[in-house]
Write a sequence for this structure.
C-alpha cells in the first residue's frame, strides 16, 4: 500500500503532494486507536474533485426527498435544472397526497436581478406557488449569486409566512460556496428543519414502538423496503429524514422514542438536537446488508426492552433470511475473493462493505467525498477536531431542553444497562475499524487518482458516481454507481440485499470487459503510424 500511495502522489507539485498525503491513509490497527486522516478540508484548485456544492447538499440531498414541501430555488435556472430529478429519491404520495417532487421551481434569476436585487421577484414567486399549489410549506434555497448580492431571503420568507397565514415559509442560506462540499449544506438544512418544522405539530401520533429513521433518502426505493420490514416487526416509523417524507412527519418527529441514524454524516445534527430539546436518544443503524439489517432490528428491539417486540423481530429475521441465504449460496462461488473499491459521499463507502462481505468479496480501497474525521475514525475524535475557518462559517445553533416537552425516554440507570447490553448511544465507530489492515482509505479522491488507483490495483469492480463512471469503464473495469444505483435498487433490507448480490454477480462475472481492447491494441500489425514527409 505504501508503494501505491507513493505512486498516486508522485506527479503532484510538492505542496499538493504533501496535502494529499494526509488524505490518503494506510489502514493499520494502532493500539487502541485508528490512524489519523485529514478530511473536510478544501479541495486544491485545479484538481477534478468528485465533490458537489453546499447547495446540492442542502436542497438536493436533505430537503429534496420531501414530497409536500415546495422547494423553491432562488437563483439562475441552471442550479435548478441540474438538481431536477437527478437523485432517484423515490416517493409515494398515495392516491391523494401532495407530491411536488417532479416539479422544478426556480426564480430564474437574470442579470437585472443581480444588479437591482432579487427580493421582489422571490416574494412574487412564493405568492405564485401559493396561489397555484396551496402547499403546507415552501422552502427557499439560496444559490451562489444570492449571497454575493445580499438578497435577504430570510426576511422575505418571514414576511411571506406572515402574509399567507397557513403556509410555513423559511429559507436556507446554502450558497454553493458556503462550505468545502455538500457537507456544509447538510448542516444548514439540519439547522433550519429543526428550527422551523420539528415540533410544530403536537397532534398525538399512533404506535407502540415509535422511532424516526434519520439519514435514509429512499434512493431506488430503499426506504420502502425498510418501511416494509418495520411494519412487519410492529415498529412505527414516525418520520424518515427525509426519504418519502412529508412536512407533518418532520413536525411530529419529536414524539418518537428513539432515533435510528442511518447516514451519520448528513443528519447527526438533527439527532443531537432532538436529544437535547426533547430527550430522545439515538443509536447508529445500517440497513445495507442482510446481516446488518438483522443486527439493526435487534438493536431497536433491545432498546424498547419489550419481549413481544424482540420475539417478533426474531420471527421476521427467520422468515426473511432463507431467501437471502439461497441467493448467497447461488452466487458466492463466482464472487468469492473478488475485490472492490468504494468511493461515495459520506456513508455508503462504509455501509456497502457489508453487502460485498456477504458474498465473500474484499474491499481493497474506499473513501468518502466529504465526510469528516469522525466518519472515518469514530466519534471519539470529535473533541479534538480543529474547527477551521470553513467550518466556523456554518452556523451552530444553540438548542436547549424544551420547557414543557422535554421528556427523557430512559432513566440514567436504564441507559447504562442498555449500554452494557451492547446498545451504544450516540456512538459511531466510523469506516476505518471495519476495513482490513493495509487497505487504502482515501478522502476526496479525484479523477486522476481514481484512474491511477484502478490501473495499479485492478479491482474487480469500482463503485462511485456518474462523474467517475465512464472513465473507469474505459479502463475495462465494471463500474456500479452507488449514488443513483444506475437504474437499480432497492438495495437496503433483505430484499434489497438479494437485488444487490445479483447485480454484483452480473457485473463481475460478465465477459464483456475482456472484449474491451480495440483490434489494434490486440494485434500490433493493425497499427499504423502517420509519417510526416
Ligand atoms: Fe448520506 Fe446519502 Fe451518503 Fe449523503 Fe450524497 Fe446520496 Fe451519497 Mo450521493 S446523504 S452521505 S450527500 S448516504 S446524495 S443518499 S449517494 S453522496 S454516500
Ligand atoms: C450530490 C448528489 C449525488 C451525486 C451523484 C453522482 C447523488 O452530491 O449532489 O455524482 O453520481 O447521489 O445524486 O451525490
Amino acid at each position: 500500500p505504501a508503494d501505491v500511495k507513493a505512486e498516486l502522489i508522485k506527479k503532484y507539485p510538492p505542496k499538493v503532494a504533501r496535502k494529499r498525503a494526509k488524505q490518503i491513509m494506510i489502514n493499520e490497527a494502532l493500539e487502541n486507536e485508528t490512524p489519523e486522516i485529514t478530511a473536510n478540508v478544501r479541495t486544491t484548485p485545479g484538481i477534478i474533485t468528485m465533490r458537489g456544492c453546499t447547495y446540492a447538499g442542502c436542497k438536493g440531498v436533505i430537503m429534496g426527498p420531501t414530497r409536500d414541501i415546495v422547494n423553491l430555488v432562488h437563483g439562475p435556472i441552471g442550479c435548478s435544472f441540474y438538481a431536477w430529478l437527478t437523485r432517484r429519491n423515490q416517493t409515494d404520495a398515495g392516491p391523494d397526497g401532495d407530491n411536488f417532487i417532479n416539479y422544478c421551481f426556480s426564480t430564474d434569476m437574470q442579470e437585472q436581478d443581480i444588479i437591482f436585487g432579487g427580493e421582489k421577484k422571490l416574494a412574487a414567486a412564493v405568492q405564485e406557488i401559493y396561489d397555484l399549489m396551496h402547499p403546507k410549506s415552501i422552502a427557499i434555497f439560496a444559490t451562489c449569486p444570492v449571497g454575493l448580492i445580499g438578497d435577504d431571503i430570510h426576511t422575505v420568507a418571514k414576511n411571506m409566512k406572515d402574509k399567507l397565514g397557513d403556509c410555513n415559509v423559511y429559507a436556507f442560506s446554502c450558497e454553493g460556496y458556503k462550505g468545502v462540499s455538500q457537507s456544509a449544506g447538510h448542516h444548514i438544512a439540519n439547522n433550519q428543519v429543526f428550527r422551523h418544522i420539528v415540533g410544530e405539530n403536537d397532534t398525538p401520533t399512533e404506535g407502540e414502538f415509535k422511532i424516526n429513521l434519520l439519514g435514509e433518502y429512499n434512493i431506488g426505493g430503499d426506504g420502502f423496503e425498510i418501511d416494509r420490514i418495520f411494519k412487519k416487526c410492529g415498529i412505527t416509523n414516525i418520520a424518515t429524514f427525509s426519504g418519502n417524507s412529508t412536512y407533518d412527519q418532520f413536525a411530529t418527529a419529536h414524539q418518537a422514542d428513539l432515533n435510528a441514524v442511518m447516514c451519520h454524516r448528513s443528519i447527526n445534527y438533527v439527532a443531537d438536537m432532538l436529544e437535547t430539546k426533547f430527550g430522545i436518544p439515538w443509536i447508529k443503524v445500517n440497513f445495507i446488508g442482510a446481516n446488518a439489517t438483522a443486527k439493526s432490528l435487534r438493536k431497536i428491539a433491545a432498546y424498547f426492552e419489550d419481549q413481544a417486540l424482540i420475539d417478533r423481530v426474531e420471527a421476521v429475521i427467520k422468515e426473511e433470511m432463507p431467501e437471502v441465504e439461497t441467493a448467497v449460496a447461488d452466487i458466492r462461488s463466482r464472487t468469492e475473493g473478488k475485490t472492490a473499491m468504494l468511493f461515495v459521499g459520506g456513508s455508503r463507502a462504509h455501509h456497502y462493505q457489508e453487502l460485498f462481505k456477504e458474498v465473500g468479496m474484499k474491499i481493497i480501497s474506499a473513501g468518502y467525498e466529504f465526510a469528516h474525521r469522525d466518519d472515518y475514525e469514530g466519534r471519539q475524535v470529535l473533541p479534538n477536531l480543529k474547527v477551521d475557518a470553513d467550518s466556523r462559517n456554518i452556523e451552530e445553533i444553540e438548542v436547549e431542553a424544551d420547557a414543557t416537552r422535554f421528556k427523557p425516554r430512559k432513566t440514567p440507570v436504564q441507559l447504562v444497562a442498555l449500554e452494557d447490553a451492547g446498545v451504544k448511544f450516540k456512538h459511531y465507530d466510523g469506516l476505518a475499524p471495519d476495513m482490513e489492515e493495509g487497505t487504502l482509505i482515501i478522502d476526496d479522491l479525484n479523477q486522476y487518482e481514481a484512474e491511477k488507483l484502478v490501473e495499479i490495483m485492478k479491482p474487480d469492480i469500482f463503485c462511485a458516481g456518474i462523474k467517475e463512471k465512464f472513465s473507469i469503464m474505459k479502463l475495462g473495469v465494471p463500474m456500479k454507481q452507488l449514488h443513483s444505483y444506475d437504474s437499480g435498487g432497492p438495495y437496503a433490507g433483505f430484499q434489497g440485499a438479494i437485488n444487490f448480490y445479483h447485480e454484483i454477480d452480473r457485473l463481475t462475472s460478465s465477459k464483456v470487459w475482456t472484449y474491451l481492447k480495440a483490434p489494434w491494441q490486440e494485434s500490433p500489425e493493425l497499427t499504423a503510424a502517420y509519417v510526416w514527409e
